[in-house]
Write a structure and sequence with these properties.
The complex is a heterodimer. Chain A has three domains: about 90 residues, 2Fe-2S iron-sulphur cluster binding domain, sarcosine oxidase, alpha subunit, N-terminal domain (Ubiquitin-like (UB roll), Roll), CATH 3.10.20.440; about 240 residues, FAD/NAD(P)-binding domain, CATH 3.50.50; about 120 residues, FAD/NAD(P)-binding domain. In chain A, about 25% of the residues lie in helices and about 25% in strands. Chain A is built from ten helices and 26 strands. The relative contact order of chain A is 0.13. Chain A starts with 15 loop residues before the first strand and ends in a 5-residue tail after the last helix. In chain A, strands 8, 9, 10, 11, 12, 13 and 26 form a seven-stranded mixed beta sheet that branches. A five-stranded mixed beta sheet of chain A has the order 2-1-7-5-6, with helices on one face. In chain A, strands 15-22-16-17-18 form a five-stranded parallel beta sheet. In chain A, strand 1 and strand 2 form a beta hairpin. By secondary structure, chain B is α/β, with parallel strands linked by helices. Chain B has a domain of about 150 residues: D-Amino Acid Oxidase, subunit A, domain 2 (D-Amino Acid Oxidase, Chain A, domain 2). Helix content of chain B is about 30%, strand content about 25%. Chain B contains nine helices and 19 strands. In chain B, the strands form four sheets. In chain B, strands 5-6-4-14-15-16-13-17 form an eight-stranded mixed beta sheet. A six-stranded mixed beta sheet of chain B has the order 8-2-1-12-19-18. A three-stranded antiparallel beta sheet of chain B has the order 9-10-11, with no helix packed on it. In chain B, strand 15 and strand 16 form a beta hairpin. Chain B is globular and about 60 Å long. Chain B starts with 9 loop residues before the first strand and ends in a 19-residue tail after the last helix. Classes of the chains: A alpha/beta, B alpha/beta. At the A-B interface, strand 11 and strand 12 of A face loops of B.
Chain lengths: ~475, ~375
């Protein structure tokens, strides 16, 4: 199930790592997470639901859902999709909640870090925020719960659109490397904490408090982090779609599939049904083909393809049909996906009976949108509003990306679903704004002006309409204290 | 949004468990009921509570209400035709010293006289019931235990009541804010909402922590104060214990949910009243420390969430229920001081009997607003959280 030949990424064989799954010896490769290594060994069922014991498999691949919870070296509820595989670890499927952990924390006492700017999330927005703030002269702590930086950039093998200044023409995977190099150049002012999850975010008078847990080789370490300014750039969660069988192993988020094949070089399956013809659905379908996986078809409930024409055309040239006004009715299979029923839908997205078609496939990919991740900012008391065009509940913010809580900034998908390009500009804007509010100023107003005008350009035109309306509503909410529909 | 009904027999303010239970019972009696909730159902204290139901109290009023409430909870699943998530694993109340024990003995005697199955445990017996407890760590000299106390799911219960109420013709208006109440000749005349006016004879104030503001709309002053209360939940682990463990001295309560999470709360020292919503690190720290002292095996378990809700606290920690003197039709159902969910079945039953049949049981007089006038109050001391 490993990808060996790929037109863009070099997936040559790496050092083997042996581990145990339910007492059986298995092999992964260096760079694998536990879940990707299991997947490469064709283990698709990772857990069972608590109440009805339904099998659950790999879904999001980025630590946002709970279907990959397993017991690792006697520690229960480990998110195996973001935990690197290590020599001789014992991975067990857990019955119900799992045993009590006993040696998870290596130190009794928490460690304290005081810093000017804390950035949560090292995706495109977080990385740019860190660089922009450091360029201004501020000291920055950049935190990410994954074991590598880059967020979702690390799986973007396609070239970005837009102007050259905004890195158009580059692939996400290249961008992540380039930005990481710059972060290293700024190592005097940017401190990086990986494998660290911020679990609490509390408002203070002068400084805000964060509580974080870092996963180290021999256990966990608790941190109390005090920051004058906090930039939240923790991205988004993939949306689920309601249909019978949607929890079967083999039903993935499109992002989860992208992570599995483009980051870890593991094939999700042999034959895929893609649900959703927005840019994500179209791009991931093409990437599946590049990895040597068959895509049966793309179904889209809307009467029109949502993504860019070029992406759709590339797919069609490869012989993948795109069915508009069609959706998935159910997935079926014992223990894992064996097939799906697709159906034509009317103008109200209601299935038209008699139009059902049976498809044989082992993988169903859901590319049905994203929801901003707002849990931390909600906890600290930032005002959120439901804005459909921004992807759901989002934090209201001003034109400097500052929320209604002083010192708390937001950027990227967690401030409204958009593209990696805009996330980077928003990150830069938030980084500069946070730094200038601390008194730093290296041509800051010019940088901010450039960011704002670049955002304007990106959001103009027909494809920028939805995020533009979303951002206008957010601005309106920030000024007026609410929306009346 | 649709046009609202402009006439009703009863308008209930508040879509928590008490409001929805009243909507069900009154509509079942044939009354035309309208319920107004400013958010969604369970958006206030009901949906944020610890979900415990207990009968062990220091005052006779609370004990009586609680015992009868649990009898109703035991039948509720059948009555409403829906699962309410009832689990009776008991409440274990830790006794820390001699004076605690004196109070515990007098409580148990009073509770036994009311027919409750409750007993005093030795430290060894505590560990038989909840093996993960550390008797020395929690400084326990004993405990009281009632096996029929337990848990009920507040969401399932409230929604079961709401659906039953709708079936009987009640109108439940969510995201509908009450902005005023009009009276005429010392009687309730109508309720003004942000969606229009509703003429009615009865208004029930079941608005939880916002009851004080509702009462002010007709010039009634309630002594209630809102207190922020915090609660946390851990990751799921295998089933470890069935009972809810509480201590009046430390204020802690915790239990394990059906799916394996441990859920509990504790007051943070010197908390002042007010509409504060933000969760605090002080709570997380204090709770984690105390929980690890009580149940050391839990000390490596991850907390996955913490949140806040309000207690609507009265000077004696007893609820205010019944009609307000001088305003015919203005009914209070608030001031539960953190116990509104567990007392709701009996309180709403009494109020239904009063509104539908005009019956006034003795307890209604003892829990009326006028009890605070000049008299010395007897405070409920069996309070946690």
């Amino acid at each position: 199930m490993r990808i060996r030949n790929h037109p863009i990424i070099d997936f040559k064989k790496k050092r083997e790592i042996s581990f145990y799954f339910n007492k059986k010896k298995m092999y992964g490769e260096e760079g694998d997470t536990i879940a990707s290594a299991l997947h490469a060994n064709d283990v698709k069922v990772l857990s069972h639901s608590l109440r009805y014991k339904r099998p659950r498999g790999f879904f999001c691949g980025i630590g946002k859902c709970s279907s990959c919870f397993m017991t690792v070296n006697d520690i229960p509820n480990v998110r195996t999709c973001i935990t690197p595989v290590k020599e001789n670890i014992k991975v067990m499927e857990q019955d119900k909640g799992g045993e009590l952990p006993n040696k998870q924390f290596i130190n009794k006492d928490k460690k304290r870090i005081d810093v000017e700017i804390v950035i949560i999330g090292s995706g495109p927005a977080g990385l740019m925020a860190a660089l922009a703030a450091a360029e201004q002269g501020a000291s920055v702590l950049l935190i990410d719960e994954n074991h590598m930086v880059g967020g979702q950039l690390v799986k973007q093998t396609h070239r970005f659109f837009g102007s050259r200044e905004e890195k158009a023409g580059m692939r996400g995977i290249e961008l992540a490397v380039e930005l990481m190099k710059k972060v290293v150049e700024y190592k005097e002012s940017i401190q990086l904490m990986l494998a660290t999850t911020v679990i609490g975010c509390y408002k203070g008078k002068k400084r805000h408090n964060l509580i974080a847990v870092q996963k180290l080789a021999d256990g966990d370490q608790l941190f109390e982090i005090n920051g004058h300014k906090i930039i939240v750039a923790c991205g988004a969660l993939e949306n689920m779609l309601a249909f019978p069988g949607n929890d079967l192993p083999g039903v993935y988020g499109a992002g989860g599939v992208q992570t599995l094949m483009n980051v870890y070089g593991v094939k999700p399956g042999k034959c895929v049904l893609m649900v959703g013809a927005g840019n994500v659905g179209l791009i991931v379908s093409y990437q599946l083909l590049q990895a040597g996986i068959m895509v049966d078809r793309v179904v889209e409930a809307m009467p029109k393809i949502g993504g860019y024409h070029v992406h759709a055309a590339k797919l069609r040239r490869c012989g993948v049909p795109i069915y508009t006004s069609h959706s998935i009715k159910e997935a079926y299979g014992k223990e894992k996906v064996e097939g799906a029923v697709v159906v034509k839908v009317d103008d109200y997205c209601q299935p038209i009976s008699g139009t059902e078609e049976n498809i044989s496939c082992d993988t169903i990919c859901l590319a049905v949108g994203l929801t901003p991740s707002i849990r931390l900012i909600e906890q600290i008391g930032v005002r959120t509003e439901f804005i459909l065009e921004a992807g759901g509940h989002v934090a209201v913010h001003d034109s400097s990306m500052q929320t209604n809580v002083r010192g708390i900034y937001i950027a990227g998908d967690s401030s409204g679903i958009e593209e990696a390009s805009t996330a980077m500009i928003e990150g830069q804007l938030a980084g500069v704004s946070a730094a200038t509010s601390l008194g730093y100023d290296k041509n800051a107003s010019e940088v901010k002006r450039k960011c704002r005008s670049a955002l304007k350009v990106f959001r103009s035109g027909p494809f920028g309409e939805i995020p533009r309306v979303g951002k206008e509503k957010i601005a309106c909410c920030y000024r007026n204290g609410g929306l009346t529909y | 949004m649709n046009e609202i009904d402009h006439k009703a027999d009863v308008v209930i303010i508040g879509g928590g468990v008490n409001g929805c239970s009243l909507a069900y019972q009154l509509s079942k009696r044939g009354m035309k009921v309208v319920l107004c909730e400013k958010g969604y159902l369970c958006s206030g204290a009901t949906g944020r509570c610890g979900a415990g139901i207990r009968q062990q109290w220091s005052t006779r009023e609370n004990s009586e209400l609680a015992i009868k409430s649990i009898q109703i909870f035991e039948r509720l699943e059948q009555e409403l035709g829906q699962d309410i998530g009832l689990r009776q694993g008991g409440y274990l109340i830790v006794v820390h010293d001699k004076s605690d024990m004196k109070q515990a003995k007098s409580n148990v005697n009073m509770q036994k006289a009311l027919g409750l199955d409750v007993s005093i445990l030795t430290p060894d017996e505590i560990v038989d019931i909840v093996p993960i407890l550390d008797v020395n760590g929690m400084h326990a000299v004993g405990a009281t235990f009632c096996p029929t106390d337990g848990h009920v799911d507040p969401f399932k219960t409230t929604h079961a009541y709401a659906q039953a109420a709708i079936k009987h013709g009640a109108q439940l208006y969510k995201f509908t804010k009450v902005v005023g109440i009009k009276k005429k000749n010392k009687r309730i005349d109508s309720v003004l909402t942000d969606r229009g006016k509703i003429s009615t004879d009865f208004v029930i104030n079941a608005a939880g922590a916002w009851s004080k503001q509702i009462a002010e709309m007709v010039g009634v002053k309630l002594p209630n104060k809102p207190f922020r209360k915090e609660i946390l939940v851990t990751e799921r682990v295998k089933p470890l214990f069935d009972a809810m463990v509480i201590s009046f001295k430390d204020g802690i309560y915790f239990s394990q949910q059906e799916e394996g999470q441990v859920l509990g709360g504790i007051p943070i020292p010197n908390e002042k009243p007010g509409y504060l919503t933000a969760p605090t690190f002080d709570f997380l720290h204090h709770m984690a420390k105390t929980l690890a002292r009580y149940a050391p095996p839990l000390k490596h378990v991850n907390v996955i969430r913490q949140w806040t809700g309000y207690y609507d606290v009265t000077p004696d920690a007893l609820p205010i229920i019944g009609e307000v003197e001088g305003i015919k039709g203005f009914i209070q159902c608030n001031g539960f001081s953190g116990h509104g969910f567990m007392l709701s079945p009996m309180v709403t039953k009494i109020l239904t009997a009063y509104i539908a049949d005009g019956r006034t049981p003795h307890i209604l007089k003892r829990l009326s607003l006028s009890r605070f006038k000049g008299k010395k109050i007897v405070r409920e001391v069996s309070v946690v959280g």
